[in-house]
Amino acid sequence: MRYASGELVELGDCVLLEQGRTKGVVQAIIETPEQMAEWGLDEPGLLLASEPFGLVFWPESEPYDPVIFVSRQAT
Q: With 70 as the cut, is the pLDDT of residue 75 above it?
């Protein structure tokens, strides 16, 4: 899975959501039918840890408010 900017999504990435107003961290990348079934989802996307929401699912198909890549967690 890739961000709109073309960067490859990785676990631990720092991102912005809600049109850049809210910080988050990628906790899970949900792409396969097995992963979607495990999480009870109908489409691929990202599971993000974000205050004040806790964990939130952001669908890959969201056309108007994509997740914005900020930085990669240091390895």
A: no
Amino acid, res. 72: R
Smallest CA-to-CA distance from 20 within 31, 10, 5, 33 is with 5
User: Which 8-state DSSP code applies to residue 6?
Assistant: S
Write down the domain spans for the chain: 14-71
pTM here? 0.87
* DSSP assignments along 40-69, one per residue: T-SS-EEEEEETTTEEEEEETT-SSSPPEE
Distances in Å between the alpha carbon of 11 and those of 1, 17, 30, 40, 68? 11, 16, 11, 20, 14
Q: Tell me the residue length of the chain.
A: 75
